[in-house]
Amino acid sequence: MPEPRDELKAWLSVEVEPLLPPPGTFERVSTQARRLRTRRAALAAAGALAVAAIAALAVPQLVIPALQTGRQANATGTPSGAVAAPQHPATGAAGSPPAPATAGQPVPAQAPPPLSVTFVGAATGWVMAQSLPAGQCDQPAAPACIVLRRTDSGGASWRTVHAPPAHGPNGPTGVSQIRFLTRSDGWAFGPQLWATHNAGRTWTQIATGGLRVTALEARGRRVFAVWARCAGTGAGFASRCASFTVYSSPAGGDAWAPALKAPVAGPGPGGGAASLLLTGTTAYLLSPAGSLFAGPLTGASLQPVQGATGAAGQPPAPPCPAGPPQPGGQPSGALLAAGPPASLDLLCTGQSAGGQQHKTIYASSDGGQTWQRTGQAPAAGTASFLSASPSGALVLATSLGIEVSTDGGTTWLAAGGTMPPGGFAYAGMTTDTQGVAVPAGPAQQGVWLTYDGGRTWQPSPAGG
Amino acid sequence: MGKFRTTDRAAAEELFNACYPRLAGWVRRLVDDDDTAHEIAAEAFTRLLARWSSLENPQSYLYMIATNLVRDHWRRAGRERRALRAVSAASHGDPVFHPSQDVHVRALIQSLPDRLRQPFLLHYYAGFGVREVAAMLGRPEGTVKADLHQARSRLRAALGENGA
Fold first, then answer.
1. Is residue A50, in this structure, part of any structural domain at all?
2. Is residue A18 situated within a structural domain?
3. Is the domain of A111 the same as that of A150?
4. What local confidence, expressed as pLDDT, does residue B76 receive?
5. Are residues A132 and A255 in the same domain?
6. Would the CB atoms of A36 and B13 count as touching at under 8 Å?
7. Do A170 and A160 meet the contact criterion of CB atoms below 8 Å apart?
8. For A3-7, A107-111, A230-234, A436-440, which range has the lowest pLDDT when averaged over its residues?
């Protein structure tokens, strides 16, 4: 047997084998470095402008306006890849007056409001938007008005790329959301389903037999989607759904097959929502009735999660029902997120009244078999999306802004930066430090980005 | 390891051509595949070139960034492995590992605390002198020497245990 010292010495003495750069690497690196410099300079300039604006306002009024929103700076309770966002409620609000620009907020004049965003790493992401006002782009007779913009610089700059030839969501037709798993494989959906496997150069519509795709996530080598039978009209394509099922396909192709033995029923005539969540190993479906199903990422059938203390043969009831759908199809009553390495986080919401909403966080470390209450999020604002960073920080998008918890939901900190009126429809972390958010307000343009773990957010002109 | 203080694109390209293959190869021994190694090396150069004009020692900065990026990669990969192990343990019993010697030693280095791992990789592996490592990490030379000694001791002990 070799001496320990020998093994270490042998490992260290191995000559490093040079690895030649792929063609074009230096050009790509130079371009990205230039964009990084530009972004830093822009952020510095924006900060300076904000300070200048504050100073200008402060002197004559002797009042210094806060850079953050009007909420409390933090809240304490007693005891959440490719990332992607839901559609924001852009439709139905055509004609709303544009929000006044905030000091220091570089909002481009021509950028259309974003519907959805997806990133496949810190640098590369796509934003889906509409080139016509929502009230016009949603019409089936409208010309293809869905637009896609891509960044390869972490949001510093964006360029228009090929989009599926579709209109906005209107009952059974149109698309509203975008997901990419890699730079090649991506999907547009909600309610129709389109796929690309060549970085968006061409898009193919996937036949769903009249079912509407209300959720889609991709991870590993597969893509999963919720296909629902719904009767909702207009922008409410994900409402009045009578049944839900899960389909899966290899990410690199279009071979969709059922991944749930039988469709699960909606809760009643009003319908409910189903939530789809992928962790590193498992696909989860939270049904409208509140049952949790799980299966491997191989595409094998999802099975009911058996509760440790639940009735024999019966799936355990998660702490709260999924509730009615938000405009993009996400549940409003139970928001599910994946924490590390295989934990689940669940936000249960109460009725929203007077701008307040009861929000309780639960966590499960056994794949949803048991749940423990871990904390309570600030009551101010209505919750719209919960996500977790790779290391487990919870990020909650609300109608007022973004709340962040680094201790599993026990304590929360209101994120700073320039918050858009109406808050956010989505916020998620691409890495532990970088994240992206989609504003909820239909008049808001661009997406919001954070580079400090969610503590502060700034707008990125996705239309630029 | 010379200094490159010009803002000239040709100098940047010269540094890239001179350093990229070794840096990517260095990273390759610490990660699992060529793609990840290229991704980390390219990201390190991107960050380097973004701060080109303000750097005293670009090459040190380059390896410092790469070391941090490798650490981040290890953390992500560790989380994925733990998750896979959890699933494997639940359904198939204990997972079976077939580590090569290279991966074995790497895993031990990976388990060192940041304080010891950084100087170890920079000195023994990237080839920087103690003085350079001390400057890169902002620590006294004596501290770096002690850290290197402690890192070696821990690795030898761990190799001894695993080999017993």
1. yes
2. no
3. yes
4. 74
5. yes
6. no
7. no
8. A107-111
Among A5, A25, A29, beta carbon nearest to B156: A5
> A378: closest CA among A355, A344, A345?
A355
Residue B25 and residue A4: Cβ atoms within 8 Å?
A: no
Task: Say what the pTM is.
Answer: 0.58
Tokens of A258: 């059922």
Q: What secondary structure does DSSP assign to B3-49, as a single string?
A: ------HHHHHHHHHHHHHHHHHHHHTTSS-HHHHHHHHHHHHHHHH
**Number of domains comprising chain A:** 2
Architecture of domain B98-164: Orthogonal Bundle (1.10)
A30 touches chain B (CB under 8 A): yes
Residues of chain B with CATH 1.10.10.10: 98-164
- Of all residues in chain B, the one with the smallest CA distance to A40 is B50
DSSP B52: G
Dihedral of alpha carbons A389, A392, A393, A398, sign? positive
Instruction: Please determine, for residue A323, whether its predicted confidence score (pLDDT) is greater than 70.
Output: yes
Say whether residue A27 is in contact with chain B using an 8 A CB cutoff. no
Burial string for A149-171 (b: 16+ CB within 10 Å, else e) reads bbbbbbbbbbeeeebbebbbbbb
Å from A181 to nearest chain B CA? 16
**Arithmetic mean of pLDDT over chain A:** 78
A61 and A73, same domain (yes or no): no
ipTM exceeding the 0.85 mark:
no
**Maximum mean pLDDT: which of A106-120, A288-302, A384-398:** A384-398
Tokens of A265: 């029923």
CA-based nearest residue to A186, from A200, A175, A172: A200
- Rounded to whole angstroms, the Cα distance separating B121 from B26 reads 10
Range with top average pLDDT, A135-144, A453-462, B138-147? B138-147
